[in-house]
């Protein structure tokens, strides 16, 4: 079986891997869609490594192909359409039992596509606990996105609490930021989208943003304060840029909440400036498996147009071109389809 590995130095390669077989408590999936996530670029741009090749990709959707031994009867059946919570822990600690296997307290979690083979291949072995139902109303592409990018947006919204009727600033309108925009709007928020790229701001409007701000043309925090007559209740930063995070903090109203999901930036607070405003700053790390199911159900029930995030669909033999294009960050979300 051919699978894609990240070699570093902005190169990828296809390797011939053994066909997967499930161990006890595992299943083999036939992959139908494997999303390309912004975090893939950390591996793509990294220094070359001599470590054994590992199949990348952590946004799988597909069908159950083979069941391993020891599964609970009726839990899964061959042919089930599924998505994947792309972590696996011990299954017994309090974190795992509440769906937060990435925060397993008794063992090092498996992260598919990072320290266990991922989804950029025709087949993938995963823990049965990580396999989640994909609603019939959703496409395979939507299921892949909900596994991380769109799911990360949902997790951030869950962290900040009820957004209905509130002003929500979404900083960065890449695939995760656009997902926050569409989900927050569907949950009743008034969304203000911030991004320096005009095409992304246009898409943000199509996906539910009430207002858009180009931070290259104006002071974004000041513009938010003017639009909201004092500041937004909530800001979610998906940009990973320190300056953008600082602007997001400055856009908050008293008692405002900032949730940061973008990787790469730093947060610095002038305590004297913000102490009396009683703001809350938090992080959010993807989402739990329980939240992933809730997100998929919400997207299906409210016809949230997750498929519109995808601008590029690739086959595995186009991997070099796919990641070179994705690295430019000039388009939307991309995926390999099988």
TrEMBL record:
Q: What does this protein need as cofactor?
A: Zn(2+)
InterPro entries cross-referenced by the UniProt entry: ADH-like_C (IPR013149), ADH-like_N (IPR013154), ER (IPR020843), GroES-like_sf (IPR011032), NAD(P)-bd_dom_sf (IPR036291), Zn_alcohol_dh (IPR050129)
Q: Name one Pfam family in it.
A: ADH_zinc_N
- Annotated keywords: Oxidoreductase
The record's annotation in Gene3D superfamilies points to:
Medium-chain alcohol dehydrogenases, catalytic domain
UniProt keyword Oxidoreductase, yes or no = yes
Enumerate the SUPFAM superfamilies for this protein. GroES-like, NAD(P)-binding Rossmann-fold domains
Q: Which residues form the Enoyl reductase (ER) domain?
A: 8-336
The answer to whether keyword DNA damage applies is: no
> What name does the UniProt record give this protein?
Zinc-binding dehydrogenase
